[in-house]
Amino acid sequence: MDAPLDKAICNQAFGRCDQCVQSADCPVDHACLDFECVAFMPCTNSLDCAHGEVCDAEEGRCGECVISADCGERELCAGHFCRARCDSDNDCTPMGLLCLKDRGHCAECTAHSDCEPDRHCSEGRCAADVCPADSASCDGNAIARCSADGDGYLRSACGATTTCSDAGGGPVCEPWVCNARQLECQGDRLVQCSDDGLREVSATDCTLTDEICTAGACRTLACAPSAYFCDGSTVRLCSADGLSSSLADSCIAGEYCDSAAAACLVGVCMPGEPACNGTIATDCNAVGNGYESGGSDCAADWKACVTGSCEPVICTPPETACDGKDRVRCDSSGTRWLVEETCGADQYCDDSAVASCKAQVCTPDAPACLGSVATSCNAEGSGYDGGGSDCGMMARTCVGGVCMDCTTTNGGVEICDELDNDCNGIIDDGNVCPTPCVVENCPSCSTALLGTPCCTAASQCGCLDLFLTFCQ
What is the span of the domain harbouring residue 239? Predict the structure, then answer.
């Protein structure tokens, strides 16, 4: 079969069209030689070949020779051709050839310089250059650089994440801008990468749809990545990808989860319960961090708000008072009296100034003497009932609240013995008995007379055998 004459193959090394660049570009039973398809006789053995040719069974083609024995006595087989033997150029120059001394036969060339500029010496033959000398181009994912003689390439493979590109005028291994052929996330952008990894075929900003890019897709956020947030009465921590969360804290009773702080804070009121917002009687909201709108302004009716209800104001804080034997204080709302102290069995509550418990001056409701007057003690033991009989007017003495006849004792001189020694109707009068050591009996020394009972402060009341000492 004759070689085709059309030139249908692009020889990228030279930027031109040729019949072939390699034998695979040629029809069957042809080989590519100097970029042209040259026919050869196929064979199985030498019987298939023309007279004077032998079969190279390994290559399946006929040629002038396969081994030197196929040639004449003064010849060697080289490249399927019989070549004249030589020891010196003198043996070859008459034929217009040179001696290829390392092979021992005459040849067209022995060095590249023996050939035309666009050819190189290959096994003694001036063959067409494979590529322009010192040129370079991409060969797959490698830089192929032509030798200085044009007889072949030196290939340098690009790295795993680089691609050979000559778009800039010369071949370089360019780093990938994305993973070749992958649909991947770059931050919040979803990127479709080109086959060579050098450009983005398409890109989508997931944030424009309030999504994030993860696992090769735009996905809706469950929460803000790596941030704490409130979920009811719990604090949760969002995962780094924003698609899930874990429990960080649970608010206890009386606390609520504050959205701004993303933390459990003490509530201002009990969720859903009646509450006071200042003077407004209303309800606590469902969270416990504020109040429901509306409600009643208790102040408009001269009332006070207590636990979500308007109640009458009955006292002024912090005033004190007596309630029977209880010493009470007005609470902060002014709507209730709170018991602060219950006076003892031998005390009464005195509210003449600041309410306080004081020692009873007499036995409650029992007959008693007020000086020479026979009367009775009041119900609290704080004093005496009005009226009564003045025993002194009857030359009698008051004993246990009863007027009794009197006989002078101690020569009619009053002493501290619980008797009316001078029969003036008064027992132990004239300060003959020491004053009992109780705080209310302690006047200030600055106002007391010399020799009278005194103290400079209640805590400094000087006592001797349960009676007051005297100012010095």
Answer: 228-266
